[in-house]
Design goal:
- The protein is α/β, with parallel strands linked by helices.
- It has two domains: 52 residues, no CATH class; 214 residues, von Willebrand factor, type A domain (Rossmann fold), CATH 3.40.50.410.
- 39% of the residues lie in helices and 24% in strands.
- It contains eight helices and ten strands.
- The protein has a six-stranded mixed sheet, sandwiched between helices. A two-stranded antiparallel sheet has the order 1-2. A two-stranded antiparallel ribbon has the order 8-9.
- The longest helix is centred in the last third of the chain and has 24 residues.
- The relative contact order is 0.15.
Length: 274
């Protein structure tokens, strides 16, 4: 089957697996489907609660996109930011075709912009590019954004967090705490965007590397084979630890690369979430 024809089916299977939408939580009664247990309400009340089922009036999907300076990096088909925009646009079109509501949060070290979920098409690309193309050197503070999402998103939603792999690096424990809290109320997916040259280090002698977000610069000797091997090993270990931490608290984790085509990415994304 052609990708264009199968994507809408995969979308519906992912975001509306039972043809229903979850409503307000209520106390569990024998015979209720245990798949709909609301763990947050259960923990708070001390007795089992389940999400009620209401008529399928549309799902809410909220994209939270990192627009910090590190997202401007990219050496393949596009930058990390450009890939994030393409992903949001593609999923938004599928959501619109299913009469689902789509919202957008743009964040750096603060929440830059919030567009509440709506059915009508929103100018997401313009909103992202307006901030991404600014001259400000934006850093990342994920806990601030997660706290904002927990406060502002009341209805149970699918929250797709799009950032580079190390968005959890700063304030890691605090970020994981807020991510866990959000996961108990919503279906959260962490979509980590990488680039094949995030950790390249070709042997070209001494070079100066500048942190895209902080502006800090340091010199590294790329001809020092032992040093580069240690840096690469530390990078890979830390990346793996961050993603495993997110998986351990029940967050869906998916990785994308700036060289990926949107169609192939969507197919892999839906199949992984199915």
């Amino acid at each position: 089957m052609h990708e264009k024809n199968i994507l809408p089916q995969l979308y519906r299977r992912t975001f509306r697996p039972n043809g229903v939408v979850l409503g307000d939580a209520r106390e569990y009664v024998p015979g209720d489907d245990t798949r709909f247990i609301n763990w947050y309400a259960t923990a708070k009340a001390g007795v089992p609660f389940v999400d009620g089922i209401r008529s399928d009036s549309g799902a809410d999907i909220v994209f939270a996109v990192d627009v910090s300076a590190s997202m401007k990096f990219g050496t393949r088909k596009r930058s990390k930011m450009a890939l994030a925009i393409d992903i949001v646009e593609a999923l938004s079109q599928l959501a619109k075709a299913n009469s689902d509501r789509v919202g957008l949060v743009l964040f750096s070290d603060s929440v830059e912009k919030y567009l509440p979920p709506r059915r009508s098409g929103q100018a997401f690309r313009n909103a992202v590019e307006e901030i991404a193309n600014s001259d400000r050197r934006l850093r990342t503070n994920l806990p601030v954004t997660l706290k904002f999402l927990d406060k502002i998103v009341k209805k149970r939603s699918a929250i797709i967090l799009i950032c580079d792999t190390f968005c959890l690096a700063s304030h890691r424990k605090l970020g994981l705490g807020y991510l866990h809290l959000l996961q108990t109320k919503h279906a959260v997916t962490l979509l980590a965007i990488g680039d094949g040259n995030d950790m390249p280090c070709p042997q070209i002698g001494k070079i100066t590397i500048e942190d895209a977000e902080s502006g800090d610069a340091f010199e590294i000797d790329t001809d020092d084979v032992d040093l580069i091997a240690k840096v690469r090993e530390k990078y890979a270990t830390y990346e793996k630890m961050i993603l495993e931490d997110a998986r351990a608290i029940g967050v869906g984790v998916f990785q994308a690369n700036t060289g990926d085509s949107i169609a192939k990415f969507l197919l892999a994304f839906f199949k992984r979430r199915a």
